[in-house]
Amino acid sequence: MKIATWNVNSIRTRLEQVVDWLKQNPVDVLCLQETKVIDHDFPRSPFENLGYHSYISGQKAYNGVALISQQQLTDVTTGFTPILPDIEPIWDEQKRVITGVIDGVRIVNLYVPNGSAIASEKYEYKLRWLTVLKEYLRSLLLLQPSICICGDFNIALEDKDIHEKVKAENHIMASPAERQALRDVLELGFADAFRKFTTEGGHFSWWDYRAASFRRNQGWRIDHHYLTPVLYEQAKSCIIDVSPRKLTQPSDHTPVIVEI
Amino acid sequence: MKIATWNVNSIRTRLEQVVDWLKQNPVDVLCLQETKVIDHDFPRSPFENLGYHSYISGQKAYNGVALISQQQLTDVTTGFTPILPDIEPIWDEQKRVITGVIDGVRIVNLYVPNGSAIASEKYEYKLRWLTVLKEYLRSLLLLQPSICICGDFNIALEDKDIHEKVKAENHIMASPAERQALRDVLELGFADAFRKFTTEGGHFSWWDYRAASFRRNQGWRIDHHYLTPVLYEQAKSCIIDVSPRKLTQPSDHTPVIVEI
DNA sequence: GTCGGGTTAG
DNA sequence: CTAACCCGAC
């Protein structure tokens, strides 16, 4: 089973690139982030034409996640609230969470808040959001032992996941508090699929549009698949496909694909 | 003497097309409308490189007119106020008027308000703007008997200046009040140069970007040259050059050229 | 800096 | 449909 994650930075702007990629790279489930479109306007038919079902949770202009799946998914829910009925509504106002089950494996597709700048209000929101995520996953684990969380985490856990030019310590997406918050989540029993196969640094999934950072390969690895133990043992590969980032008018992120 | 008028719908976006056209079609004066740029950012040097002087009156994002001339012009003024010092400032807040004299001929380059929709506030502004224009031209005629007014009038005076698909009566740019307001202006002693040479309909200078209207030739003739009697008698040709409208990323208007 | 969406205008 | 601006995001 292949599960891909791709922050497309607007599905409407990137539609042709995503459809082309999916034709060349058939996967069981494609997890999209930053679709930036309300559900009514999500372009379902291009995916239908390729034989894929769409499960979407979008909003106007910002955020938005989708699961594009060859098989139908079961137990699809959006946001934290269906699993954590008692949380405050602010955690689901932004559309960042969608999940569904395929062949006994729960896929959790996340768009973790970026956090803007250290010590900002958005940064605090990001850290607290990750504590909500942990409770959400704890609940899901009670229902299902096999879980693949993937998406844009907006966190690079290790310095080797960041190009050399930036000192991680006080940088958003790499601050100690962010890394600790993510480690706290993973402590539930998740392991990084990419690191099962590749230990060296210099592999990135996101390059800022600014400062020709892709040309200089000054990127970050912030798009991840985290697997529960049995899935992790079964994982056969985890690959970053850099090619879509080379196209004209690319997303700033590129797809990452795990095979289990 | 050749005088061309062209609503370029942003001189910065259309610069290459305008320069190319001018190379192929040298004219004495090119009257531009909808330059959509403040004077500081107007691209003067590409025209200088071709041997043309620029006289400009622009604003941010909207409107804006310019005279591009091989010879230097004299008596250049912008807006109504230099000629009508007592009018209210609202008539010159939008940059729609520039004039200058070449070889004893006054060129008046206009971008008449579009009017948006019949009975709207903008429609009323358009009608009143045309009464101000009449007083402006009346004053200019006292100084100079030879005048060529040209530009985007946003009015089609006759039904044959409009493609068949639209009933003129209640359409903006063709309503009785707009036509009457323009006829009131022309009554000062101006005649339509184009109609000296061509009497049949189906000749247009503007095609809406929407609804593939150029492909279907569903256009309007709203860009005009109006001449005082002696100039009208001298006029040798008046031609609409459709070719720029066929390019990719064209203006919605195409140039009209009078030779006197 | 660079992008995407939304808005306003035509 | 097209262009410019504004805004928010990164």
Automatic annotation (TrEMBL), chains A, B:
Mg(2+) binds at residues 7, 34, 152, 154, 252-253. Its EC number is 3.1.11.2. Gene3D superfamilies: Endonuclease/exonuclease/phosphatase (3.60.10.10). SUPFAM superfamilies: DNase I-like. Probably binds two magnesium or manganese ions per subunit. GO terms for biological process: DNA repair. The record marks 154 as: Transition state stabilizer. The active site is at 111, 152 (proton donor/acceptor), 253 (proton acceptor). Residues 4-253 form the Endonuclease/exonuclease/phosphatase domain. The record marks 223 as: Important for catalytic activity. The record marks 253 as: Interaction with DNA substrate. Its cofactor is Mg(2+); Mn(2+). PROSITE patterns: AP_NUCLEASE_F1_4 (PS51435). Keywords: Hydrolase, Magnesium, Manganese, Metal-binding. One of its GO terms (molecular function) is double-stranded DNA 3'-5' DNA exonuclease activity. Pfam families: Exo_endo_phos. InterPro entries: AP_endonuc_1 (IPR004808), Endo/exonu/phosph_ase_sf (IPR036691), Endo/exonuclease/phosphatase (IPR005135), ExoIII-like (IPR037493). Belongs to the DNA repair enzymes AP/ExoA family. This is Exodeoxyribonuclease III.
